[in-house]
Amino acid sequence: MTDLTASLIPDFDLASRNTLALQARSRFGFVLEDADQLPALFDYASSEALAVRLLGGGSNVVLAPGFDGITALIASRGRRIVDETATHTLVEAAAGENWHDLVAWTVEQGLGGLENLALIPGTTGAAPVQNIGAYGSELANSFHSLDAFDRRTGKMTVFGLQACAFAYRDSVFKHEPDRYVVTKIRLALPKAWRPNLGFAGLAELSGAGDLSPRVVMERVIALRTSKLPDWRVTPNAGSFFHNPVVAADIAAQILEEDTSAPSYPQADGRTKLSAGWLIEKSGLKGYRMGPVGVSERHALVLVNYGGAQQSHIAALASHIRQTVQSRFGIILTPEPIFC
Ligand code: EPU
Fold first, then answer.
1. What CATH number has the domain spanning 235-338?
2. pLDDT number for residue 1
3. Which of 169, 171, 186, 295 is catalytic?
4. Which one of 104, 294, 295, 296 has the lowest number of neighbouring Cβ atoms within 10 Å?
5. Ligand 1 midpoint to CA 55 (Å)
6. Exposed, middle or buried, 107 (CB in 10 Å: 0-12/13-18/19+)?
7. Given CA atoms 295, 301, 306, 309 in this order, what sign does their dihedral have?
8. pLDDT tens, residue by residue, 22-57
9. What CATH fold (topology level) applies to the domain 79-226?
C-alpha cells in the first residue's frame, strides 16, 4: 500500500479555500493532482481509520470549523477537444479545472453552448453534482458523459446523461454524496450554435448584429457582476436556497396577495417561486446576525462580514427559513452542503 504520510499537510487551514471564508481547519489536507491517486488515498485513509472529504472550489459548502480526517483538494488539470462529429465538438476537462476558465476557453476556441454559465464559481468536477444553472441554461443541456471513481467498488465508472438523473440543482451524485468522485467530464457543444436569450437581461441582445458566444458570455458576466456580490470582496456561497417549486394553488395564493411575485410555471404543472423575493418580502434583505447577514444586493445570498464560522451561517439560515415559513408557509431548502 502506498504510504501517503509524506504528502499529507497537517492542521490544514481551509479559510482561503471556501468562498464563504469560514474559519475551518482539517486534521490533514491532501492535494489530489491526478485521479490515479484516488485508490491509494482511500486505501490509506481506511487503513488509518481516517475519514476523507473532497473539496473542489469550495463555492457550495458551509465547512465545519474542524474536520477530523483528510480533506482532499481536487486539483487535477487538463482540457482538450477529444472528438468531432457532424453536429458536435466534444470537449473533455479534468475535475479540478476552474469552471469559468473552461467556459472562457471554449468560447476562445469559437465553441458556443456554455456561455450562459459563465462566471459560476467552482470547479468543473462539481458542476454536474448540482447541475449548475444560470440565465436559462444548465449543465445538463451540454452534458455528454463523465468519469467517476466509485468508492464502493474501487473502480472507475462512466455516466451518460440519463444515468446522472439531472434535475433542477440535482443529480444522482447529490443523493449518494459519499460514493462517487467525479474525475473528468465531457461536454458536447453544438456546431450550429444558437444563442439562448430567453432570460430577462439577455433578451435585448436578440436584435444585436454580431451575436457570438463571446458577446453573450460578456453580457452574462456583466449581469452576474451587477446582481451578485463578488465572493472575493464579500465572501458568500452564491444562492443559499433553492427556488421552491410549489403546487399551483399555493403560488396562486401568493400572487393574489402580491401580483409582483416572480413565478415560473413548470412542465409538471407546479410553479417555481423566487426564494430571493420571498426572503426580501419577509423583511430580511440586508438583515444582519453577528458576523453574517443577508446581502443587501441580493436576498438569496448570505454573506460573511468577517470571522464567521459554520454555526453563524446555520443560525442565520435557520432564522430565514422560520421567518419565510411563518410569513408564506413555504419551507426553503438550502443549496450549499454543510460538511
Ligand atoms: N429578487 C428579489 N429580491 C432579491 C433578489 C431577487 O425580489 O433580493 C427577485 C428578482 O427581482 C427576480 C427574481 O427574484 O425577479 C429572480 O432573481 P434572479 O434573476 O437574481 O435569480 P434567482 O432566481 O435569485 C437563480 C439561480 C442563480 C442564477 C440566477 C440567474 C437558483 C437557486 N439560483 O437565482 O444561481 O445565477 O437564477 O439565472 O436557482 C447559484 O445557484 O448560486 C446562483 C447564483
1. 3.90.78.10
2. 67
3. 169
4. 296
5. 25
6. buried
7. positive
8. 999 999 999 999 999 999 999 999 999 999 999 999
9. 3.30.465
Residue with cell 456580490: 229
Q: What is the mean pLDDT of residues 323-338?
A: 97
Burial of 108 (0-12, 13-18, 19+ CB in 10 A): exposed
Q: Separation of 184 CA from ligand 1 center, angstroms? A: 29
Ligand 1 centroid to residue 167 C-alpha, Å: 17
Find the 129 Cα to ligand 1 centroid distance in Å.
20
Residues with CB under 6 A from ligand 1: 134-135, 227-228, 238-239, 242-243, 262, 274, 276-277, 280, 285, 298-300, 335
- Indicate if the pLDDT at residue 209 is higher than 80: no
Which of 239, 279, 280, 296 to mutate to test ligand 1, by most ligand atoms within 8 A of the CB atom? Answer: 239
CA distance 243 to 263: 10
Q: Does residue 2 surpass a pLDDT of 80?
A: no
Residues 228, 237: contact at Cβ < 8 Å? no
Task: Out of 76, 171, 239, 282, pick the active-site residue.
Answer: 239
pLDDT in tens, 118-167: 999 999 999 999 999 999 999 999 999 999 999 999 999 999 999 999 99
8 A C-beta contact, residue 12 and residue 48: no
Q: What is the pLDDT of residue 207?
A: 76
84 is catalytic: no
* Integer Cα distance of 38 and 31 in angstroms: 11
Half-sphere exposure of 103 (CA within 13 A, CB side): 27
Would you kindly state where each structural domain of the chain is located, as residue ranges? 2-74, 79-226, 235-338
335 catalytic? Reply is yes
Mean pLDDT within 99-128: 98
Domain 2-74: top CATH class:
alpha beta
Model-level pTM greater than 0.70? yes
Instruction: Name which residue sits closest to atom 2 of ligand 1, judged by CA.
Output: 277
The candidate with the shortest Cα–Cα distance to 88, out of 144, 12, 25, 133, is 144
